[in-house]
UniProtKB/TrEMBL annotation:
Pfam families: Methyltransf_7. Residues 1-23 are annotated as: Disordered. GO terms for molecular function: methyltransferase activity. Residues 11-23 have a biased composition (Polar residues). SUPFAM superfamilies: S-adenosyl-L-methionine-dependent methyltransferases. InterPro entries: MeTrfase_7 (IPR005299), SAM-dependent_MTases_sf (IPR029063). This is Uncharacterized protein. It comes from the Eukaryota.
Length: 343
């Protein structure tokens, strides 16, 4: 099975859209800001010669989706580049009109992603840049350049997407647990009743996919370029079928004819740190909306619209008492962050 054309995070800006349900990811990305800043400064150092700063820097955001997180890391990068440039020129006593590297931002996701939500927000983003960095000029003045150019690159990040040696920095967050759905027929999504062979097949697929991702990016990133990846993770190697990501499938089981269930493909694997490491070396209602924003397109396309309201209603009925039992204890999410340099 090829990457499904119908698969996408819920688009638009409604209550069950990814846009309205990505605050957990936003918090996770905020924590990685210092790692991203350090990587960007290293890139600038490695490609600057003497006092000459590079003319342009190309960055790719892989699996950008359609929510506010699509441009969050981009804003960190721009902030880092402009502030670094400002401090360099302040020390020279020549701040105004100082050149900074222009930034090409390549936003990647599957072609079924709602890129238009991002594209419609771009003018506001550019205006904010001009306002935030006063030396870039008046936000109403179209002649003044913000020096940032954003483009969409549809396609699977498990294949080649960019020319060789063309990227300085690659970022991806909360996307690489989505597998390329090209597995043996008959594998169901992992649920508590899944046999070890299914769990093993998911692990192997994750390893193969992540390896393809690394190989492709190796070709595309310049020497000295950097990559920061943030995964949804599991704390350890025990039971990959436990946790929120398997909850929907446990619920669907018993409600749907077995044949339909057996042919369903939920291409997701949440790795543990040791799984990520071995490949490199050789989060009520809000929760349900969150789960719905990421899983609805797959569930609807396979099981039909009819079960959808009932399914997510049952999710709410089951999750709400659990949450109140747990009181104010917060649901914990584990993220795995890795920062790499291309040699
Ligand atoms: N990076 C954002 C979005 C994460 S949601 C954030 O941190 O909030 C995961 C995104 O990965 C979805 O938009 C999904 O369409 C995308 N995705 C999944 N598999 C992909 C693939 N093979 N190639 C490109 N994008 C993919």
């Amino acid at each position: 099975m090829e990457v499904p054309q119908y698969f996408h995070m819920n688009g638009g800006t409604s209550e069950t859209s990814y846009t309205s349900n990505s605050s957990m990811q936003k918090r996770g990305i905020e924590v990685t800001k210092p790692i991203i800043q350090e990587a960007i400064l290293e890139i600038i150092n490695s490609i600057s010669s003497g006092k000459d700063i590079p003319k342009s820097i190309s960055i790719a955001e892989m699996g950008c989706s359609s929510g506010p997180t699509a441009l969050l890391v981009v804003s960190y990068i721009i902030d880092t580049i402009y502030n670094n440039n400002k401090s360099l020129h302040e020390s020279d006593g020549a701040l105004s009109g100082c050149p900074h590297p222009e930034i090409l931002v390549l936003l990647n996701d599957l072609s079924s992603n709602d890129f238009n939500v991002i594209f419609k927000s771009l003018q506001g983003f550019y205006d904010q840049l001009k306002k935030a960095y006063t030396n870039l000029g008046d936000a109403d003045d179209d002649q003044k350049q913000h020096g940032c150019f954003v483009a969409g690159i549809p396609g699977s990040f498990y294949g080649r997407l960019f020319p060789s040696g063309s990227l300085h920095f690659v970022h991806s967050s909360y996307s690489l647990h989505w597998l390329s759905p090209k597995r043996n027929k008959g594998n169901v999504y992992m649920a508590e009743s899944s046999p070890p062979s299914v769990l093993e097949a998911y692990l192997k697929q994750f390893e193969r996919d992540f390896c393809s991702f690394l190989k492709c990016r190796y070709e595309e990133i310049v020497k000295g370029g950097r990559m920061v990846l943030t995964f949804c993770g599991r704390a350890d190697d025990t039971s990959p079928s436990r946790g929120m990501h398997c909850f929907i499938m446990n619920l669907i089981q018993g409600k749907i004819e077995e044949e339909k269930l057996d042919s369903f493909d939920m291409p997701q694997y949440v790795p543990s740190p040791s799984v990520v490491k071995s490949v490199i070396l050789n989060e009520g209602k809000n929760i349900v909306n969150f789960m719905r924003s990421i899983s609805e397109s797959l569930v609807v396309s396979h099981f039909g619209e009819e079960i959808i309201e009932e399914l997510y209603k049952r999710c709410r009925e089951i999750i709400a008492p659990r949450l109140s039992r747990e009181g104010s204890r917060k649901t914990k999410h584990l993220s795995i962050v890795i920062s790499m340099t291309r040699k």
